[in-house]
Specification:
The chain has 593 residues and is mostly helical. It contains 24 helices and ten strands. The relative contact order is 0.06.
Length: 593
């Protein structure tokens, strides 16, 4: 079919059922026309991806302008009725599809698939609904789809025969449509199974009505309907007794889910009296799997879509008292306990903040502020103390304080902390003593990497259990620093900012007698040694280790090269490099370069 051609008008066209998904309507219409679904998609003029398998672009998610015009011309259906069968119907409520930059952009859908709570290439289903008529509602494709409010059963995710997600289509080609006759039996699974050792490739003939469905209490079914009413715009939602927009409600649901995934216990699940055992077990299994995961991935993100209907049911039940409680007090009672556990977990050495990447909507801010203790009491303890008299400024501070000073005075306050990270934090603390009013300003005064400084100030300080004792130790270190005399580390950092390699002529006289060649790599490691020696910085941040200078080397190989060089440097080479560094810093003195 040409770019501008319009398909011919098809014979009698089935009217979509209210709330029906596009895939469901297309399958029913194809059966009525005695066509395979793939043939029906082509007859409608839908834009499809090239290939043997018929795969309409963004099938069931959105219709491009061309597909919308052609389908309307072929069926006589209004554009609003065709759009109502797409997942874009929930844009601005249960889904944020702003990343779907244009209706034919498959890559943008791949990104959304890792962010939004929607089944873009499959569907959940209620076997009892399908036993009555072969209509698949669009809301079954939402991540919040858990329970059929009519039949009060858990929805089903996977066919027990082909082991594929329901409505997935071709194995390996999600949403691929069968294009060979005879037409499909709408009462069966119809996923296309790959050929096996004992079977031919073909459509799965599992009867959908025969899939097992777990009964749930009426209270859980009512909760599902309440959330669906918010998604469809039939109800104005309230969070903690405050009226909010539907999009903000679902953002709050995702955040509350992330907190529950992190800290919910068996007792929390038991408190949901209307939650079936299957749902509680699904939530616990997913929680344990997430805790054991070592490689990350989209499925391990705290804000990821509930992987199954049973898990979604547990999510709704756990979040109900937080989001849908009668008022702020009842919501705060539950949420404060969860936030307290999350904060305690962050204080354990080695733990970060898994909730950091989950957007927190404005409607939850009052609850979080009321429930969470301050992220750190360290800055508050400093503000309550008289300003100590120090002679240094931020320019007189290295990025990493002296290793021995740190071990003697500060390491006991930061259990489980890598020395380099702890020494960076203490350098920031000294900058605060020198007058910086905030951690951000301290990092700026030191010209320190803002991301590394922020991690130190926001994460490491949470391990400090006695802020007053911590600042006492920082002040003792400051006194040591003053007594040693002031060094302008800021000037050194600026002077050595372009030192990426020590010249061959500098290294040759001391390396050749030791039978060591002067390679480019050795010249760069030597430059890093000089930079670290004079600036007191983290050698990993040395200009010689800029990524553009090592395009074909892995980070680990570069670091291993540094470790070998630092372990090898004999006194004669160290003294020679020290003299070279002095020459760079003081070029006007006799012998300077």
């Amino acid at each position: 079919m040409g770019e501008s051609s319009v398909p011919r008008r098809l014979p009698a066209v089935l009217v979509p059922v209210e709330g029906e998904s596009f895939a469901s309507w297309l399958s029913r219409a194809a059966a009525d026309w005695q066509l395979a679904p793939g043939e029906a998609a082509l007859a409608l003029g839908l834009e499809c991806r090239p290939g043997v398998v018929v795969r309409p672009l963004l099938f069931g998610v959105a219709l491009s302008g061309r597909s919308l015009r052609r389908a309307g011309a072929a069926t006589g259906l209004r554009a609003r009725d065709l759009r109502a069968m797409q997942l874009t119907r929930y844009a601005g409520t249960a889904l944020d599809l702003a990343g779907l930059d244009r209706p034919t952009s498959e890559p943008s859908l791949a990104v959304l698939g890792n962010q939004e709570w929607a089944l873009f290439t499959a569907s959940r289903a209620c076997p009892k609904c399908l036993a009555e008529r072969p209509v698949w509602p669009l809301w079954w494709r939402l991540g919040i789809a858990a329970v059929c409010p009519v039949h009060q059963v858990l929805l089903v995710d996977v066919c027990r025969r082909c082991r594929m997600r329901l409505g997935q289509g071709y194995n390996g080609h999600p949403r691929g449509l069968p294009s060979r006759r005879p037409e499909m039996d709408l009462g069966r699974c119809n996923n296309r199974r790959p050929a096996g050792r004992r079977r031919k490739a073909g459509l799965c003939d599992q009867k959908l009505a025969a899939l097992p469905a777990t009964p749930v209490p009426a209270a859980l079914a009512a909760l599902q309907q309440r959330v669906l009413d918010i998604a469809d715009g039939r109800t104005v939602p309230r969070v903690a007794g405050r009226t909010v927009a539907a999009a903000e409600f679902f953002a709050a649901l995702r955040y509350a889910t992330a907190v529950a995934r992190l800290v919910a216990t068996d007792d929390d699940l038991a408190a949901c009296s209307f939650l079936p055992d299957e749902a509680a077990e699904a939530f616990t299994a997913e929680q344990h799997g997430r805790q054991r995961a070592t490689r990350g991935g989209a499925g391990t993100q705290m804000g990821a879509i509930p992987p199954a209907a049973a898990h979604a049911a547990a999510v709704l039940a756990l979040a109900e008292p937080v989001l849908l409680g009668p008022g702020r007090r009842s919501s705060l009672d539950r949420f404060s306990e969860w936030i307290g556990r999350a904060v305690a977990r962050r204080r354990i050495p080695g733990n970060g903040d898994p909730l950091r990447a989950v957007p927190r909507p404005a409607c939850l801010e009052p609850l979080v502020r009321a429930a969470a203790p301050p992220a750190t009491r360290v800055a508050g303890a400093l503000a309550a103390r008289p300003a100590p008299a120090v002679a240094f400024t931020a320019d007189h501070l290295p990025h990493l304080v002296d290793a021995d000073d740190y071990t003697d005075l500060l390491a006991p306050h930061l259990p489980g902390t890598a020395p380099a990270s702890g020494r960076r934090l203490v350098a920031l603390c000294l900058a605060r003593l020198a007058g910086a009013p905030s951690w951000q300003q301290a990092a700026s005064d030191l010209a320190m990497d803002p991301l590394k400084a922020a991690r130190a100030a926001s994460t490491l300080v949470q391990r400090i259990t006695d802020p007053d004792a911590f600042w006492d130790s920082v002040e003792r270190l400051a006194q040591r620093h003053d007594r040693r005399g002031l060094v302008d580390y800021g000037a050194r950092r600026r002077a050595l900012a372009t030192l990426t390699a020590v010249p061959h002529a500098v290294l040759y006289p001391v390396c050749r007698p030791l039978d060591h060649d002067v390679t480019l790599q050795r010249r760069r490691h030597a430059a890093a040694w000089v930079w670290q020696h004079f600036t007191g910085g983290d050698v990993r941040e040395a200009p010689a280790y800029g990524p553009r200078l090592w395009p074909s080397a892995s980070t680990e190989s570069v670091r291993e090269g540094w470790r070998r060089f630092a372990a090898w440097v004999p006194d004669t080479v160290a003294a020679h490099l020290t003299a070279y560094g002095h020459g760079l810093l003081h070029p006007d003195t006799p012998g300077g370069t």
